[in-house]
Amino acid sequence: MRISTVQIYDRAMSSIQDVTAQQQKTQQQLASGKRVLTPADDPVASTRILELKQELSVNQQFQRNVELAEGRLSLQDDRLGGINEVIERLRTLAVSAGNGALTKDDLGSIAAEVESRLDQLAGLLNARDASGEYVFSGFQGGTQPFQQDDSGSYRYHGDEGVRYVQIDASVTIQSTINGQAIFEDMPTYTNSFFTRASEGNQAEPPATITVGQVVDQADYDAFYPEDLVIEFTSPNTFDLREKSTGLTLQSNVAYAPNGTINAQGTQFEIRGAPATGDTFTVESTEKQGLLTTVEKFVYGLRNFAPTTDGREAFESLLEGTIANFDFAATSVLEARGQLGARLNTLDTGLEQLKDAEILTQEVLGNLESIDYAETVSLLSLQQFSLDAAYSSFNRITSLSLFDRIR
Which among 400, 398, 402, 401 has a CA at the least distance from the CA of 390? Predict the structure, then answer.
């Protein structure tokens, strides 16, 4: 069998190239620390490695979700703690206002602090998180939840939505609370009401209605749960009627700007210059928001009448106010308890996620990482083979027929 010079060179070069390629691959494995560089190296292991990396990515996203939820819940708990402190102070002021020896000026001083606390409370209820979203707005994170209307009374403008965050493949946790549930949907100690100006009123600037108070609980209880409508028949007169039936209770009542209006056991004022056709409502309610309770407390302090009837109405107001503050404190404490339970769940969930991450990384390392001692030994063997190939090539290519001629 004849072997040409070209075949000798081809076979020698092919052998050298194969060993060189193997050596380069081993060097890449050493440099990267990975055994499987391409799917062709180990198809089964490559598939499993991809699955494990996806699991790690999902796990890390869950950990980020936990951290996000933990930040939100901690902020909410902090704000609720501040709100609870304000409620306790307001309750103390309500108790002190019941001292019969206090004068109207003394009550005015208490009213000044209550008004300051009202502003503080509104600020806490309108708190924002690090992303600028309002904490207690439900789904309406970009909407300030508690806003003052033209009369200066606070109204809730958020919704009742709550957000959930997924912290595991089958676990979600509530990450927000809404102001409606905690600060608005609270029972009142006695039947109460809130006032509202119709959105269709035409006066410019708009006439407003005060928050008012119940001055005769028995009369109001007899009228409850009916709503009262005040409709201006002219800029100087108005009618009082039942909302549901349209029955006129009083007609052509003379209007005095800022003058006190008493009807069905309630007391309130309309301020400004209403236009003909403007309407206002006194709407009954079995629930009363925290801010409304504070507003009615201020109204009672500012409008205290040092008469027998006035003192009885004021004492009734204080009794209801203290009870309503207790309802609010209970609502806040319950919310904080729920937040604490969720924070504990997040702590446990985060520990489990980190444990799972460690185990996954360990399995991934076993599949993907090289054995450095074994790989270095292999690289040495490949270098030896490469040196041998070069040596053989040199010796074979140096052979000549003339070496055999003597």
Answer: 398
